[in-house]
Amino acid sequence: MTLLDKEGVRLTVDDAVATVTLTRPEKRNAQSPAMWRALVEAGQLLPGSVRVVVLRGEGKSFSAGLDRQAFTPEGFDGEASFLTMGKGPVEEIERVIAGYQEAFLWWRRNDLVTIAAVQGHAIGAGFQLALSCDLRVCADDVQFAMKETSLGLVPDLTGTHPLVRHVGYARALEICATGRFVRAEEAERIGLANVVVPAADLAAATEDLTAALLAAPRDAVIETKALLAGAVDRPFEQQPAAERAAQARRLQDLVGGGE
Length: 259
Prior knowledge:
Blueprint: E1 2-6, E2 9-14, E3 17-22, H1 33-45, E4 52-57, H2 82-85, H3 90-105, E5 113-118, E6 121-123, H4 125-132, E7 135-139, E8 143-145, H5 160-167, H6 169-178, E9 182-183, H7 184-190, E10 195-197, H8 202-215, H9 218-231, H10 239-255
Parallel strand pairs: 3-4, 4-5, 5-7, 6-8, 7-10
Antiparallel strand pairs: 1-2, 2-3, 8-9
């Protein structure tokens, strides 16, 4: 069932699995503010039955990043160009960017497990969109890169936190400051890719992972995701208490206990 198909974004739902597809292969799925608004809408349209969301891109590339038209004086139809935006007050620039970031935030919801199926280029905004997901299944031709610094900018679409979490501060700094490509073997070795497969097997590998995630009871997965996500910033001394509380809820639900 197709729930959304506009601005380079298509959302389809099949029972517990939703698929969000970037549909601008002729532009290597380059992103725009209109695409980001459509991604926000896709998140809002998800039925409550959905447990796993797969994010994929049509064509040879997952997403080559921001559409460079944003940096032309004319920008996009009906949109202020980034050149114009940069002449405004700081508060207004931050407000606009906050709206863009919404497209990258909902993938982290505790009630969902999100998988990016990544092939070819995942550059800049494309890299950050892949980092928004919980898991990444990558083709062996994948090329991640954070090119913002080479343009005089910084990564601002919520990708810096997960990048540091996955690869550590020093490597994250080196990747961002140099803008170099991280290819498949390195991506798997340093924790950016959960699995790397031949490009022809990307869809099948993603389906296998999705099926494995759906095998466990939903509430247990939700509690576990919240527990693990919180562990990133929670002091170790607090983690045992968080585990106890989560397990108590699960046991009560399983046996119908509680007051």
